[in-house]
Amino acid sequence: MATSTTQPRAGRRLPDSPRDPRRVGFSQTLGRWDVKVSPYLYISPFFILFALTGLFPLAYTAYVSVYDWHLLGGQGDFVGFDNFAFVFQEPNFWKGLRNTFSIFLLSTIPQLMIAIVLAALLDANLRARTFWRMGVLVPYVVAPVAVSLIFGKVFADQSGLANAVLGFFGVDPIKWHGAVLPSHFAVATMVNFRWTGYNTLILLAAMQAVPRELYEAAVIDGATRVRQFFSITIPQIRPTLIFVVITSTIGGLQIFDEPRMFDQLGQGGPGRQWMTVTMYIYELGFGNSKSFGRAAAVAWVLFLIILAVGMLNFWLTRRIASESTPKEPRRKKVKR
Amino acid sequence: MSAPSVPFIRQTAGASAARAANRSRGYGSERRPGWVTYLFLTLAIVVFVSPIYYAFLLASSDSATIAQNPIPSLIPGGNFLANVNEVLSANINFWKALTNSIIVAVTTSASVVLFSTLAGFSFAKLRFRGRNGLLLFVIATTAVPTQLGIVPLFIVMAELGWLSKLVAVIVPGLVTAFGVFWMTQYLESALPYELIEAARVDGASMIRTFWSIALPAARPAAIMLGLFAFVGSWTNFFWPFIVLGSSNPTLPVALQLLQASYFKDMSLIMAGVVLSAIPLLLLFVVAGRQLVAGIMAGAVKG
Description:
Chain B: Pfam families: BPD_transp_1. Chain B: Its main location: membrane. The complex is a heterodimer. By secondary structure, chain A is an all-alpha fold. Chain A has helices at 21-64, 82-88, 91-122, 129-137, 144-154, 161-168, 180-208, 212-220, 225-236, 238-252, 257-260, 277-286, 292-323, 328-335; strands at residues 67-70, 74-78. Chain B is globular and about 75 Å long.
């Protein structure tokens, strides 16, 4: 609408004007072309790039996965679903899947709970507000690789900080690298360290958008702070919660940096205690076996899993968030 | 620095931030929270900052001390510069990694800002067939785990002869769906149609209108977007690790190499960690405010 009014259409109706009609006609055509094509031209970089580096590789992964394909040798014979059959009978694949989900749950759930509490604390008329908000965001600018190196030392089996603190309280040292669940806890801690503050700010923004009248009405109704939190805040920030959960699902199930750097060998431990699916993809494709076909098969499986979990998440978060809303009618009654 | 006006905050950081600003300046009547809130927040920030300080403590110590005691001392030792020196002179080529990281981060963030603003201008202010559908498609792509396409992407890069070249890391990050969506959201409210009309009536071409009208109007959001792109690029590991390899690393890749060859000497590794984190920590001191505002604005609108 803005652009359609700007064409100098009068030009053609004045054949006797001193200006050269052909030149006006040409610039007019050019102008119309400009208006018609420019919008598509401006958005095209994203679509071209996404097609080339996002969509095509993802689709081509399915193609590679049914071939015997070597990192150096290139495309080989068509093997059907052999690559899938191979990885499905590999215990390491299932270990990777188990570890990925375990780390994902250990990082997402506590992280969200802490972030909600922190956001609720920040959602007050604080002194030096910006200072507190910036404070929780500091870990975000530290690279996951660096975070992993730091926490690799904190959770060292011998002479680590965590075990030293535990020893101070008389707790026996824990095998943070050696055992399955402790190693997952350690890797999840790195994720939590980097992302809790970030999600806190997202949730804080959502909390500040909640109309203050709702709280005033609840206060009149005699609701406690805790009751207000569960009956007003949580249901009101539901869309944001869904958003946070889904983004952390997509990222969390592809986790690579933190577990890769947890020890210097990068294989996820001698017993693959903390090897994730993405690490397994890397190992199949770029490790000793150099089998792109098998790596692509696992990548494709993980893609489907992320899709499924994302949808499950969406459904679950909606349900959980709407279960805490039956008090809503009461709130309306109060307002009347 | 004087505090920005409330309408300005509403423009740059969203309505909720403006409401918060209003409250903090005493226009509202909300009372201040008690000391317990501050206590918990202090505790949280100590938890968030102490691992970074811990890395610095280790980096300023030496391997023998660290082996004896997990906490060398609460006051930094005197070995930091010596350790940094050793990291820089190691055969990992830290200087090159630093230069590479700067090149990649600067190019990608500049290009993300340019192309996202261009697309955002088009989506927010121009009329064309299929606009809503295409915008919806852009938003949907943020949910696609493109990282899983690495195998074909690697094959493509090998075909192009881009393996272990920076261009292989730069090109996939030239523009992001998040950036396009972000700039569309911002320009929708920040750029009046009248301005565009005026420019068009004056005979400015589309690209001229973009360059002299839309780009200046997009500045606050463009700066935030650039910051996020910079941080994202600086901390990116997976793809550079695969495609660059040890010969031409970025900083995170160099840290991996450092860990692989010096895993016995924690103080050296931590010196590398601190060294790689310093640029972004400095950036955070200067622009942390913008990052906070950006995350919060994105959350409300998204």
